[in-house]
User: Fold this.
Amino acid sequence: MTTIEKDALLDYARSLEGKSFKEHATGAVHPVLYAFEDGAQEGSPYIDLYSKGKREGWDPAHDLAWSTSVDPESPILPEEMCGLYGSDIWERLTPRERTRARHWNGAWTLGQFLHGERGALLATAQLVGCAPRTDQKLYAATQVQDEARHVEAYERYVREKMEKTFSPSPHLVALLDAILLDSRWDMKFLGMQILVEGLALAAFGWIRRFSQEPLIKEIITRIQRDEARHVAFGVAALSERYKDLSDSERRAETRCGRRWASPSRSAVRPCSPRSP
Ligand SMILES: [Fe+2]
Ligand SMILES: [Fe+2]
Assistant:
C-alpha cells in the first residue's frame, strides 16, 4: 500500500479488520533532510529537552519491580474504563463474568497502549529524518530511545502479568498509517506528538490516579514523564512552524488534524496539498 489518500479513515479502518499487524506495511514516502549545522544547537529549547531526555533515561529491565505479583483478574485499571461499564449488559453480568470482563478489558487497553507505542517508535524514527533542524533531530533521537523503552515495558507487562494479548484496533492502525504516510513533517508532529500522545497522557493520568496495582502505576509514571517531554517538543516545534504559515495553510492543517481526531467522519488526506 502506498497511499490512503481518498479513503475515509473509518472505511480504511474497516478494511483492516481481521488483518495481522505483524504483516502490515505502509509505503511511507517523506523527505529526509540533511539539515545539519555546526553550533546550531546553542541556546535552543530543543537542546534543553534533548539534555533532559539523556539525563532522565531509565531501563525497564532494571528499574522496574518485575517480581511484583499481579493478579490479572484484579481491578488493575479503573472499572469505569471497561466499555461495558454502566450498561444494561454490565448490570446483568454475574460477579464472575464481571471479573472476566475486567481482565479482558485491562489486557485489551494495555495492549492498545503497547501497539500505540510501537507506532510511536516508527513515527519518531521518521522524525529524525524529516525534522528540518539539527537540534530537533538530536532531540527526536532521544525520543526514539524513549519509545523503545515504552514498547519494552508494556510488552513485558502485558505478556507476563496480563497473560492475554490482543491485536491492535484497526482504528489505531488506521490513525498510525495516516501519520506515517503523511509526507509533511509538521503533520507527523501534530498527529503523533499532539493528538496521539495528548490522548495517551490523559488515559495514563486516569490509570495512575485510580489503579491500585503498584507495578503498572510505576510503569505509567515513568512513561508519563517521558511523554510530557514529547508533547512539549511537539508544542514548541509546531508553534514555531505555524508562525510561518498563511491563514489558509493554517486552516487546512487544522481541518486535517480534526479529521484525524475524529475518525468517524474523517478522510485521511483530502487536506489541501502543500509542499513539505
Ligand atoms: Fe511513548
Ligand atoms: Fe511518546
